[in-house]
Design brief:
Elements (H helix, E strand, L loop, with lengths): L38 H4 L4 H11 L1 E2 L1 E18 L4 E14 L4 E6 L10 H17 L3 E2 H11 L6 H19 L3 H4 L6 E3 L2 E3 L4 H14 L3 E5 L4 H14 L4 E5 L6 H13 L6 E3 L7 H15 L3 E3 L6 H10 L4 E5 H19 L2 E5 L5 H14 L4 E2 L13 E2 L2 E3 L2 E3 L8 E2 L7
Parallel strand pairs: 7-8, 8-9, 9-10, 10-11, 11-12, 12-13, 13-14
Antiparallel strand pairs: 1-5, 2-3, 3-4, 6-17, 15-18, 16-17
């Protein structure tokens, strides 16, 4: 079997595909076939079977693998119940296959949510890149498994996600398939909410009014530091954007009784959130179930597990205890492979799905968005943080029209970095 990226045996009327090392996004005019692989195989449905087939069928031969800091300023500080972020300090990953096709990944760093800080992430990403550079040709599934061993569990999930993104992007680039098609092709668009961090009522109202003008119908409000202040912020937002849908995200900030009190006060105001995300501490399983059952039965509000959903073991505990209605999947918490496993369990268990992120550029958000669009099974989309950056170093990628992201037919991710600018 040939190594991934040289081309593929195309059905009639399809041009052979090849990537040039000089251009990470497009082909040169030279090509060599991979025996036994066709576009039809790559786009096989159902999605999970198609991607599993890809992992078992295609072999990967990495020529270069590097990582560099990805530092980007924010428009304003981003404050949640557990941390405050002044700027993005993530890690970018670039993987080039032996045919010149390039894949891009991003390991997002958010203190108190991701386990890694940037120096740790840089060291671990370098270890993974060194492994890829010296590894023999192997199947995509095998190399993803090896990366999972080098970067195990939640402790290194963010870096693992970034490396997995870059590998999968390189493979998709090689076979000429956009990521949203690789993950099933259900849609090429998503509609995201937008987040209002913990700010004053006046600041929250100003943001809500601006987002309303931009066409955002769903606002995700960070709460959990001060119950009374949270209520005042909600009142201020309602005055300027009375028709918006609310998602409350406490980021573990409330005690169980406080979380219920918030719902009671909102009910008295005539406000029903569409979702209440992570109301209590990640390890307070009893409290999570308590809030979830009251929210569902008394107020008709779904509760989502975010920080409490950091592994497949967490998901099984949630399913067995009937603890929440919604799982928030973030690639930085569980990696790409872990996310695919959780999607399967959630679908089989009847749980609804949300996809979110940390504070990321269009690299990580674009990958997550294309995964969500391709699967088409996510009820809640929270992929807004590139809109909170004062600049975004990613070139290309998806088109943005207010709350709607449209993914093109460009192969792979469709976006890239000017690598030397990060040096």
């Amino acid at each position: 079997m040939g190594s991934i990226g040289f081309s593929l045996n195309s059905p009639p009327n399809h041009a052979l595909l090849h990537c040039s090392a000089l251009n990470p996004l497009y082909n040169s005019n030279k090509s060599r076939p991979i025996s036994g692989l066709s576009i039809k195989m790559v786009l096989a449905t159902p999605t999970s079977l198609g991607f599993k087939n890809l992992m078992e069928t295609i072999t990967v031969n990495v020529q270069r693998a590097e990582n560099r800091p990805l530092n980007v300023p924010l428009i304003a500080p981003f404050t949640i119940a557990t941390s405050r972020l002044e700027k993005v300090e993530n890690v970018a990953i670039r993987i080039e296959l032996n045919n010149g096709c390039v894949g891009w990944g991003e390991a997002p760093i958010l203190p108190f949510v991701t386990a890694e800080d940037q120096p740790t992430a840089m060291v671990k990403a370098s270890e993974a890149c060194e492994f890829l550079r010296r590894s023999p040709e192997m199947t995509l599934g095998s190399v993803l498994g090896e990366i999972g061993g080098i970067l195990p569990g939640h402790e290194f999930a963010s870096v693992r996600a970034g490396v997995e993104m870059a590998l999968i992007d390189a493979v998709a680039n090689s076979i000429g398939v956009p990521l949203w098609r690789l993950f099933g092709g259900a849609s090429n668009t998503i509609t995201t909410d937008i987040t209002i961090p913990i700010v004053t009522p006046a600041e929250a109202a100003a943001l809500a009014l601006e987002y309303c003008k931009q066409g955002f119908g769903a606002l995700k409000l960070k709460v959990g530091k001060n119950l009374n202040a949270d209520i005042e912020v909600l009142k201020a937002i309602r005055l300027v954007h009375p028709d918006c849908m609310f998602i409350l995200d406490a980021n573990e900030g409330y005690k169980p009784k406080e979380a219920v009190e918030v719902l009671e006060k909102l009910h008295g105001m005539g406000v029903t959130p569409v979702l209440f995300e992570q109301p209590v501490h990640r390890d307070d399983w009893e409290g999570l179930g308590y809030v979830s059952h009251i929210a569902r039965d008394k107020y008709g509000v779904s509760v989502a597990a975010d920080e409490s959903c950091r592994s497949i073991a967490d998901v099984k505990k949630i399913v067995e205890g009937n603890l929440v209605d919604v799982l928030n999947i973030k690639l930085a918490k569980v990696g790409v492979v872990g996310a695919l496993e959780i999607i399967e369990v959630a679908k089989a268990s009847g749980l609804k799905l949300m996809i979110g992120g940390m504070v990321e550029t269009k690299l990580a958000m674009g990958f997550a968005g294309q995964l969500a669009a391709g699967f088409g099974c996510f009820k809640f989309i929270d992929l807004d943080t590139p809109l909170l950056l004062s600049e975004d170093p990613v070139f290309g990628g998806y088109e943005v029209n207010g709350a709607v992201y449209k993914f093109k037919n460009a192969r792979g991710h469709g976006g890239f970095l000017h690598w030397d600018d990060l040096a």
